[in-house]
Amino acid sequence: RAARKMAEAAGGGPAVPVLFCFSVFARPSSVPHGAGYELLIQKFLSLYGDHIDMHRKFVVQIFAEEWSQYIDLPKGFVVSERCKVRLVPLQIQMTTLGNLTPSSTVFFCCDMQERFRPAIKYFGDIISVGQRLLQGARLLGIPVIVTEQYPKGLGSTVQEIDLTGAKLVLPKTKFSMVLPEVEAALAEIPGVRSVVLFGVETHVCIQQTALELIGRGLEVHIVADATSSRSMMDRMFALERLARTGIIVTTSEAILLQLVADKEHPKFKEIQNLIKASAPESGLLSKV
C-alpha cells in the first residue's frame, strides 16, 4: 500500500501493481499508470541494485497470458494493468563463443607464488605451462595481467615465470583478480573480448575470477594444464562447475595454436617450437 501511494505521488496517477522478477527473486511493487520502459528499469535498480551487474546488457520481458510465457517487452509498452515483468541478462552469443584472436585477448596469470609450491598438486608442471603461455603472449603481443595474493606473507611470483612486459603486476587480498586496477587496465585495451586464465587455486581465485569476468560479459578460457589446487577433488568440481556456466576449459597447446590459427602465421614456427620444447607429461589433464 505504501509503495502504491509513493508511485501515485511520483507519477501523478493511479498506481498499478507489478511483480518484478530477477534471477531467483520476485518482489511485488507498483508503478504509476502509463509507466514505460525507463521507469521499469529504475524500479528494477531500486529493488535489485545490489545484485545487478551494470557492465552487462539486459532485456525486459513481460509475462503474456495468451502464450503462457515471458515475451520481450513490446515497443512503446506502457503499464496499464496488473502485470509480471522480469529482467534477463543477455548471454555471450554462441556464434562467437571460443573464437580467440590475439587482438581481442588478454592473459590473466593468477597467484603463481613461491609459498604455494609445496602445497599445490603438480605445481612444477603448471609453472612450466604458465611460463610457456607467457612466452607465447610476448610473441603474439597479447597483454598480460598478473596478481599476487598477499605477497608480503606468501611471496612473489616464482622465479621460473618471466613477467617481462606484463601490463600489470598487482598485489591483492581479494580472492578474485577483478580489482579496480584490473578493470581500469582492461578498459585501456580496445576490443577485449576474451580472457585466458590460469594459476592457483582452481576452486578459489580462479573460480571467483572467472565468474566475475563472465558477469561482465567477457568470454573466459581456463587453461586446465596450467591451473591446480591443493586438492584434486576441489579442482575437479570447480572445473566442472565452471564449464556448466559456459566458461571454456581448454589446454595451453589448444590456446596457442588457436591464437596463430594458420601455419602461415608469421609466428607459427616460434609457437610450434615453444610447444615442442616444453610440454610436461604430468597426468594433470586426466584429472579434469
UniProtKB/TrEMBL annotation:
Residue intervals of the Isochorismatase-like domain: 105-253
Pfam families: Isochorismatase (PF00857)
Protein origin, superkingdom: Eukaryota
UniProt cross-references to InterPro entries, sorted A to Z: Isochorismatase-like_dom, Isochorismatase-like_sf, Isochorismatase_domain
Name of the protein described by the UniProt record: Isochorismatase domain-containing protein 1
Record-stated family: Belongs to the isochorismatase family.
